[in-house]
Amino acid sequence: MELHPVRVHRSEENLPRKDQLAYRIAQVAADPVAVTPEAADMVINRIIDNASVALAALTRAPVSAARAQAASHSAPASGRGASVFGVDSLTSPEWAAWANGVAVRELDYHDTFLAADYSHPGDNIPPLLAAAQHTGASGEALLRGIVTGYEIQVDLVKAISLHRHKIDHVAHLGPSAAAGLGTLLGLDPNTIFHAVGQALHTTTATRQSRKGEISTWKAYAPAFAGKMAIEAVDRAMRGQTSPTPIYEGEDGVIAWLLDGPEARYEVPLPAPGEPKRAILDTYTKEHSAEYQAQAWIDLARRLHAAHPELRDPANVRGIVLSTSHHTHYVIGSGANDPQKYDPSASRETLDHSIPYIFAVALQDGAWHHERSYAPERANRPDTVELWRKVETTEDPEWTRRYHSLDITEKAFGGRVDITLADGRVITDEIAVADAHPLGARPFGRDQYVEKFRTLAAGVAEDSEVERFLDVVGRLPELPAGSLHSLNLRARPCLIDTAAARGGLF
């Protein structure tokens, strides 16, 4: 890897294009380096993973609304059109990316990478698959595009913090998806450069979408970034240019939205000819919850079995979770969001409440993507009583481990101290989720397939499940024009398209 230095430049400095971060990203995207077998295998895993969580969310209101919007736009005259997940209809690629991106993100249940910022790199897949279907690309081209999308997003997340300045993390997704599209389509660096710049410019938004009463927009935010990336690539291919330099300009993103005129970053990017392997640094979720809750769910399950008395709030005086800065301030009591303790809060809010998640997992010894968020579950009196005894605190050592670049010590968990009513204290800790590559039960292909089969049950016919698994397993060999076969159809009558609430179009 090479470290690319990034700082703000005054206009009169006239920073050459070749030295701009957007151009270096474009060069990485245009590099025809081969995909390693390990990266190719992980791409297949993540396509399966995305399909799993999208199927499980097909009938949820945000997904239904996005699908109805997409259905209002017919496939364009040029190209083949792209598939809308769950149904047979085709639409334009940007609207397919929109609908499918919402389906993938709705349950907060797919892959993650955490470093200086947050990310869900699997959000790159819907726009790339939609564009690949529309253009008649091959499986190998899609594979290369996805590897680039993951590489760029992970590299940006390692170096540049958005959340510190209350900018939503999809500001890294717009450029990564645009870069991945550039690889997929075999575009030249200059065209990719302008697409990256436009994608970044149109996908910077505040983090209010993940603060307080979290709304349905949380699922739409990455879908919007994917849609914007496709539109940016389309404009760039037509010769249209972007704000330049988009990162380093004196009125650019860094100067006014991030660390300001004195900012200094070093972004790690593959050297020319170096394989793109960042997808191997990412990890998926066993549980439908914010990633920083994954390890805590596993610890709660362990405590549920070892200490059954903890399920009754009458036996518990207080619970303190000592954890990283990010966990404490984003999903913990450090956020100072009363909604994180509110039984009437939205599913999206409960998904970002570690006090709620830990209490429910401690009582149930399990976590379910629907039952654990049900209103009747959140309002159970004994759960509310236990929930409100849970608080978080930042521990500098867990913060250090969260940010460590050493994969062997990087951690997303912490220590729990449970004070019982009789004064005794139960203490335990966990560093990473069980499903993490260094966890107790790391996810491999078998676990991705098991998750897929579990979430597909009752949603897709068994024959459709087997067909999809056969096709995706042969991704590198899929010929040009065959990628619509990566769409999954829901069981007949599961989706009532007529029932969708009407809008403007």
From TrEMBL:
Domain of life: Bacteria
Keyword annotations of the record: Lyase
Entry's EC annotation: 4.2.1.79
Location of the MmgE/PrpD N-terminal domain: 20-265
Domain MmgE/PrpD C-terminal: 287-472
Stretches that traverse the bilayer: none
SUPFAM superfamilies tied to this protein: 2-methylcitrate dehydratase PrpD
InterPro entries in UniProt: MmgE/PrpD_sf, MmgE/PrpD_sf_1, MmgE/PrpD_sf_2, MmgE_PrpD, MmgE_PrpD_C, MmgE_PrpD_N
Catalytic activity field: (2S,3S)-2-methylcitrate = 2-methyl-cis-aconitate + H2O
GO molecular function: 2-methylcitrate dehydratase activity
Cited Pfam families: MmgE_PrpD_C, MmgE_PrpD_N
Family label: Belongs to the PrpD family.
Quaternary organization: Monomer.
Protein name: 2-methylcitrate dehydratase
Source organism of this protein record: Arthrobacter crusticola
